[in-house]
Specification:
Elements lengths: L4 H19 E10 L2 E10 L14 E2 L5 E4 L2 E2 L10 H9 L1 E4 L6 E2 L6 E3 L4 H26 L7 H13 L4 H10 L9 H7 L6 H6 L2 E4 L9 H12 L3 E5 L2 E5 L9 H7 L3 E7 L1 E2 L8 E2 L5 E3 H8 L6 E2 L6 E5 L5 H5 L6 E2 L3 E4 L21 E2 L6 H4 L9 E2 L1 E5 L6 H8 L6 H9 L1 E5 L8 E4 L4 H6 L3 H6 L5 E2 L6 H7 L3
Parallel strand pairs: 4-6, 10-13, 12-15, 14-22, 21-25
Antiparallel strand pairs: 1-2, 2-3, 2-6, 4-5, 7-8, 9-11, 10-11, 12-17, 16-17, 18-19, 19-20, 22-23, 23-24
C-alpha cells in the first residue's frame, strides 16, 4: 500500500524551515531563580515586506525536549501538578532544570517525581516574571535591530502573539511593559480597538486621567484587549456614561483584576463592573450591549445582594463575577442584534463557546435556528419565586454592529418581508423582560423610551401578570406606569 502522508509532511516541514530561516530570527534565552534554570526559544519575525505577521513565529519552544530536568537529566514521568499554572506553563514552553538545593523529590530509580518543593509556587512565580522581562527586552531590541517601528504591522502582530503565549501572567506582562521607559512608545492593536485611536500607546492608555471608549464590542475583542479594559476599569476612580460613550477616570492597571480570574472569565464566569453615573440616551436601560460588561449600579447592586449569584473579586467594590448561562444576564450582554426577531424572540449562535470563531467573521443575519427565550432573570429575582415578593424586571438595549458584505447581501432578502427586522439590525433593539418563562420579552426596533415599551404590553400579557407586583430596578412600579398611561 502506498503512503501519501509522509511526503506531504516532509514537504511542509521543509517549507516551514525555509520560511523560518528567511523571515524568523530565533533567540536562545535563559533565566535563573534560586537554583532553578529555565531555557526557551523566542522566535520573532524579521523585517521583510514579504513576511506575514501571522506565520513563522507562532511558537515559543526549547531545543530538544521540553519539560522537567534535574541536573541536566530529563525526568520522563514528571508528574506535573496542573493546578499550578506557572509550573505547567514552564513544562510546556521550555526546559526547567533544577540544579540547586531547591529541587523535586525523585523516585528510587530517578525516573519520576514524587513531590515538589514547598516553595515551588513562589519560586516559579518569580522565575516567570524574569522570563517575561527578558522576553520583552529581547523583543524590543529585535525590533530596533530590524528597524521595525512601534506601529509596524509585524511588530503589532508579534506583541499580540507574546501576550497570548504568556497566558498565565498577562497582567504582569502588561505592567512590566508599561512601567519601563524603554517601551513607552509600544502600540498594541487591542488598545486601538478599544479607543478607536490607532496611535494611542500602552503607556498613554494606562496613564490617561480620563479616556472615552465609544463602543466596546466586548465579546468581539481579543483576550488582551479584554484584559486591558478590565484592568483600566477595575482601577478607575469613576466610570460614567453619556452620549459619547463610556468614560473611564483613573490611571493604571488594576491589581484586583488578577490572572486567575481573567482566565476564569474566559471560561465559565463573567466579570461585571459597576458604573457610577449612568446617563445619556441610554439612562433608562439597565443593560446596553455596547457598554457590557459595565452596568448601572442599580443592576450591579441587585445582583450583588445574593452571594449565591455573584462573587466579589478580592477587595474590589467595582467588580463581581457571575456565572455564564445560556438563559442568564451574561447571554443578554452578548446578544447579537442580527439574532433577534421582532415576533419570535431571541436566538443564539450554533457554536456559542469560548473557542468559537469571532462572530464578526460569520454571517449572523437571519440565523433563527436556536431559540433563546427563557430568560427568567434569576440573577435579580433568585432561583425560587416567593409569594408576596415583588418581581424585578429588566429593560435592555441590544446595540447594532457593523455588518460584513455577506451579511449586507443577506439582509436585503428581508426588505419586503421583514422591514422591522431590518430596522432592528440597523438601529438596535429595545427589549423589556418581565422575568416570566411563559412570557416573551417585549421587542421594539431602535431606542424606545420605557413608557412606550410598557404601552406595548398586550392585554393578554397583562392578564398573566395579574396579582403580582413588578418593579423596575429603580423601584418604579410597572402597574403604576400602566395606570399613568391610562391602560
Amino acid at each position: 500500500m502506498k503512503s501519501y502522508g509522509m511526503p506531504w509532511v516532509v514537504h511542509l516541514q521543509i517549507e516551514s524551515a525555509k520560511y523560518t530561516a528567511e523571515f524568523v530570527k530565533t533567540y536562545d534565552c535563559k533565566a535563573e531563580q534560586g537554583g532553578i534554570k529555565f531555557s526557551w526559544l523566542l522566535k520573532l519575525p524579521s523585517r521583510s515586506r514579504d513576511a506575514s505577521p501571522s506565520r513563522g513565529f507562532k511558537s515559543v519552544q526549547c531545543f530538544g525536549q521540553s519539560g522537567v530536568f534535574v541536573d541536566g537529566v530529563h525526568i520522563e514521568h514528571n508528574k506535573v501538578n496542573f493546578s499550578d499554572r506557572e509550573l505547567d506553563w514552564f513544562c510546556k514552553s521550555g526546559q526547567i532544570d533544577f540544579t540547586g538545593e531547591m529541587r523535586p523529590v525523585l523516585s528510587v530509580d530517578r525516573t519520576s517525581i514524587t513531590s515538589w518543593p514547598v516553595m515551588m509556587k513562589e519560586l516559579s512565580r518569580k522565575l516567570l516574571q524574569q522570563v517575561v522581562s527578558k522576553s520583552i527586552e529581547i523583543t524590543k531590541r529585535h525590533f530596533d535591530e530590524e528597524l521595525l517601528s512601534d506601529d509596524d504591522p509585524t511588530a503589532l502582530a508579534a506583541w499580540d502573539y507574546l501576550l497570548g503565549h504568556f497566558y498565565t501572567c498577562r497582567a504582569d506582562f502588561l505592567e512590566i511593559l508599561a512601567k519601563d521607559e524603554r517601551y513607552a512608545g509600544v502600540i498594541l492593536r487591542d488598545i486601538a480597538e478599544l479607543t478607536q485611536d490607532k496611535d494611542l500607546t500602552l503607556r498613554a492608555f494606562l496613564d490617561a486621567d480620563k479616556i472615552c471608549l465609544p463602543r466596546l464590542g466586548y465579546h468581539d475583542l481579543g483576550q488582551t484587549a479584554k484584559l486591558l479594559f478590565l484592568g483600566k476599569c477595575g482601577n478607575a476612580e469613576l466610570l460614567t456614561t453619556d452620549n459619547a460613550g463610556l468614560w473611564v477616570t483613573g490611571k493604571g492597571l488594576s491589581p484586583i483584576i488578577t490572572n486567575s480570574n481573567i482566565e476564569r472569565e474566559f471560561g465559565h464566569t463573567e466579570i461585571l463592573l459597576r458604573c457610577d453615573n449612568w446617563t445619556g440616551k441610554f439612562s433608562e436601560f439597565d443593560l446596553v450591549t455596547d457598554y457590557w460588561p459595565v452596568v448601572p449600579s442599580r443592576l450591579f447592586d441587585r445582583i450583588e445582594t445574593d452571594s449565591r449569584r455573584a462573587e466579589k473579586i478580592n477587595v474590589s467594590e467595582r467588580a463581581i463575577e457571575i456565572q455564564r448561562m445560556g438563559n442568564g444576564i451574561s447571554a443578554l450582554g452578548e446578544q447579537d442584534a442580527c439574532l433577534i426577531h421582532p415576533r419570535y424572540g431571541l436566538y443564539h449562535e450554533d457554536d456559542h463557546s469560548m473557542f468559537s470563531k469571532n462572530r464578526a467573521q460569520k454571517n449572523m443575519v437571519g440565523r433563527f435556528d436556536k431559540a433563546s427565550n427563557n430568560h427568567w432573570l434569576y440573577e435579580i429575582n433568585g432561583h425560587y419565586i416567593e409569594k408576596n415578593k415583588p418581581r424585578y424586571i429588566l429593560i435592555i438595549y441590544i446595540s447594532p454592529r457593523g455588518l460584513s458584505p455577506e451579511e449586507e447581501a443577506s439582509l436585503k432578502e428581508f426588505e419586503s418581508s421583514e422591514p422591522e427586522y431590518i430596522q432592528g439590525v440597523r438601529n438596535g433593539w429595545s427589549l423589556l423582560f418581565l422575568g416570566r418563562t411563559h412570557v416573551q420579552p417585549i421587542i421594539r426596533a431602535g431606542i424606545v423610551p420605557r413608557k412606550d415599551m410598557v404601552a406595548a404590553i398586550s392585554e393578554d400579557i397583562w392578564k398573566k401578570l395579574e396579582d403580582e407586583e413588578y418593579l423596575f430596578l429603580d423601584g418604579t412600579s410597572l402597574n403604576e406606569l400602566k395606570i399613568q398611561q391610562g391602560q
